[in-house]
Write a structure and sequence with these properties.
With about 230 residues, the protein is an alpha+beta fold. Helix content is about 40%, strand content about 20%. Helix 2 crosses helix 5.
Amino acid sequence: MNKYLLGLIAVISLSVGIIGFYLIKNSNELPAPEFALHYQQPRTITNFSFTDELGQTFQNEQLNGKWSFIFLGYTSCPDVCPMTLQKLHVIYDDLLKVTDKTQVILVSVDPQRDTQEKLSQYIAYFNPDFKAVRADHDVLFPFARSIGLMYAITDYNSDSADLTNSSTTDKNYWVDHSASMVLINPEGKVAAIFKPEQKAGEVPHIDKNKLVSDYPKIVALYQKKSLL
């Protein structure tokens, strides 16, 4: 009888240990991002070749080994672009604390007016560590679409849009573009998209606190998956 009780106690103890281990394991599960659209299977980006603010070639390879925050914009943008760049400047140190392999990239959607020199001056005004790149629309549009963003050029005097006619001398136009921000992982694939908050009467904007909250979670999940 005593042997039976001892055996029963041993079985119960083992079961409790297994259950305890399971609970501890679950308690150590990494938290999922709360605000970003996080891709369980990162999206492949089409091949591209841009020119950066220094006049150097910027291709897919320049995304490898780094976490890249990419968004569309242009130097004549009156609201969304400067607001986004200013917010990124404010939180840039926080992003670098997550990983020093972090870069911020403005992709110009206005190659006609945004020359290399203009982009260089513009991006340096917000942060000298930020990058800005440009390309003609035949490269730019497929790239934007592959990362889940869109843009359209609209004439001041017309509702039409022409993405291919970048040689026109008429500079009376604006560029409608996504206000979302795309996060690229160190493999050069889309890891997540941060969508803007849109309220009536306000400029669409990314909540910088939500971005800072989700960024380390996304990085941690990627690192954990890489170890498996």
